[in-house]
Design goal:
The complex is a heterodimer of chains A (105) and B (252).
Chain A (H helix, E strand, L loop, with lengths): L4 H11 L1 E8 L7 E8 L2 H12 L7 E6 L11 H5 L23
Antiparallel strand pairs in A: 1-2, 1-3
Chain B lengths: L3 H22 L8 H29 L5 H6 L10 H4 L5 H22 L5 H29 L3 H14 L11 H8 L10 H15 L22 H9 L1 H5 L6
Chain lengths: 105, 252
C-alpha cells in the first residue's frame, strides 16, 4: 500500500500547472498578488490558494489565474517601456507648485 | 448531573474527531505535493479542534476533575467508541480520500441536524463544525471525481478504495440504545434518517467520477461504538498516547 513518495511527487509536479493567486483583503479593495500554487484544475487551484494564503482571514475573495495566461513584458522591453518617463518631470505631481490658497490637499 | 448516555454520546463524537485528526496528521510532510500537504494538515487541525471541543464538554459532563487530555490519552482501545472508518489506515492517496469523503458526507448531514439539538453546547459545536465540514466535503469529493475520472491507474485505485471501505459505511447510520434515548430527548440525531441523503451525495459524486457503487448486500462491519475495533486503532493509540504513557502527567 505504501507509495513511493520520491517518484510520485516528481511525476505529479510535472503534470501540475502553476497558478497565480490574487487576494482581495477586504470588500471593494483591489486584488493583490499573493503568490502562486500548483494545481491540476480551477477548483484545486482555488482550494489550494485558500489553504495557503487566506486561512487566517486575510481576504474576502480570491482570484486564481494560470501563470501561462498572464502576458508579461520582457526584460528587453524595459528601456522602451519605462525609461521615457525619466526626463519628463512634469509627469510627476511633485513638479507642480501647489497654490497656497488651495486648502485641504 | 448529566446522564451516562449523554456523556457517552458526546464522547463518541469526540472520539470520531480525534481519531480522524490523528490519522490525517500522520500524512503531514508525506502528501503527494506541498499544497495538498497543507490542505490535509488544515483538515487535521480542524478535526483536532473539534475533538477538543467535544472532549472538553464530555470531561465537564463526567465531573471529578476529568480533563479532555485524560479522555484522549488515558483510555484504552476498548474504551474508544469512534466509528471504525475513522481508524482505517491512510493507505494510498485514494484510500485516504475515499475514507474522508464517506465521513465528510455523513458529517455534513449529521451536523446539519445536530444544530437543532436541545443541548446548547452540542448545537454550538455543530454550528462551527458545519462550516468546516462543507469545506472538507468539497475537498474530498472533488478528489474522488478527479481520481475516478482521471487516468486508468487513478480510476482503478479509487474504485478499489471504495470497494475496500464500503463495509464500514453502514455503521455510520446505526443507532444503539443510548443513541435512541438521546434522539428521544432531542439531544441527539436520528442517524438512520440520514442514509437517504447520504446515498444521494455518494451516488452523485460516484457518477461524476465514473466509478461503481458496491452492492448494498455485501458484508458490513460494525462495533466501533461498542469499543470493538479493527486492528489499526491499537497502533494508532500507542503512537498518540506514547508521551502520557511513558511520562504520566508530563506537562510543558
Amino acid at each position: 500500500m505504501q507509495i513511493n513518495i520520491k517518484t510520485k511527487s516528481k511525476m505529479d509536479k510535472n503534470k501540475l500547472t502553476i497558478w497565480e493567486v490574487f487576494v482581495q483583503p477586504k470588500t471593494g479593495a483591489t486584488f493583490q498578488h499573493a503568490g502562486n500554487v500548483h494545481a491540476s484544475d480551477k477548483e484545486m487551484a482555488l482550494q489550494n490558494a485558500r489553504d495557503l494564503y487566506t486561512r487566517r482571514q486575510e481576504g474576502t475573495c480570491i482570484w486564481v489565474v494560470k501563470s501561462e495566461d498572464i502576458v508579461s513584458s520582457s526584460a528587453e522591453d524595459q528601456d522602451a517601456f519605462f525609461d521615457p518617463a525619466d526626463d519628463k518631470v512634469y509627469r510627476y505631481p511633485t513638479f507642480f507648485k501647489v497654490s497656497k490658497k488651495a486648502k485641504g490637499l | 448531573m448529566a446522564s451516562d448516555n449523554q456523556f457517552q454520546y458526546v464522547l463518541s463524537l469526540g472520539d470520531d474527531a480525534l481519531i480522524t485528526a490523528q490519522r490525517l496528521s500522520q500524512l503531514a510532510y508525506r502528501a503527494p505535493f506541498l499544497e495538498e500537504d497543507i490542505a490535509l494538515s488544515n483538515i487535521s487541525l480542524d478535526m483536532f479542534g473539534r475533538a477538543n471541543l467535544f472532549l472538553e464538554y464530555a470531561a465537564a459532563l463526567k465531573g471529578d476533575n476529568f480533563s479532555a487530555d485524560d479522555l484522549a490519552f488515558k483510555r484504552n482501545e476498548r474504551e474508544f467508541s469512534n466509528h471504525l472508518i475513522c481508524e482505517q489506515p491512510n493507505g494510498n492517496f485514494a484510500d485516504t480520500m475515499v475514507r474522508q469523503f464517506f465521513m465528510d458526507a455523513f458529517n455534513k448531514l449529521f451536523f446539519e441536524k445536530l444544530i437543532d439539538s436541545n443541548d446548547s453546547q452540542l448545537s454550538a459545536i455543530s454550528q462551527k463544525s458545519i462550516k468546516e465540514t462543507n469545506y472538507h466535503l468539497r475537498h474530498s469529493s472533488k478528489w474522488i471525481i478527479r481520481l475516478g475520472d482521471g487516468t486508468p491507474e487513478s480510476h482503478a485505485k479509487v474504485q478499489s478504495a471504495i470497494n475496500n471501505l464500503w463495509m464500514f459505511t453502514e455503521e455510520l447510520f446505526e443507532m444503539n440504545e443510548s443513541d435512541i434515548i438521546m434522539e428521544q430527548q432531542k439531544i441527539g440525531v436520528d442517524c438512520r434518517a440520514l442514509k437517504i441523503e447520504w446515498d444521494k451525495i455518494v451516488n452523485d459524486i460516484f457518477s461524476q467520477a465514473t466509478v461503481n457503487r458496491p452492492k448494498d448486500d455485501g458484508h458490513m462491519v460494525t462495533g466501533g461504538r461498542q469499543g470493538i475495533h479493527t486492528e489499526h486503532l491499537g497502533h494508532l493509540l500507542s503512537d498518540m498516547q506514547y508521551l502520557q504513557r511513558a511520562y504520566p502527567d508530563a506537562t510543558w
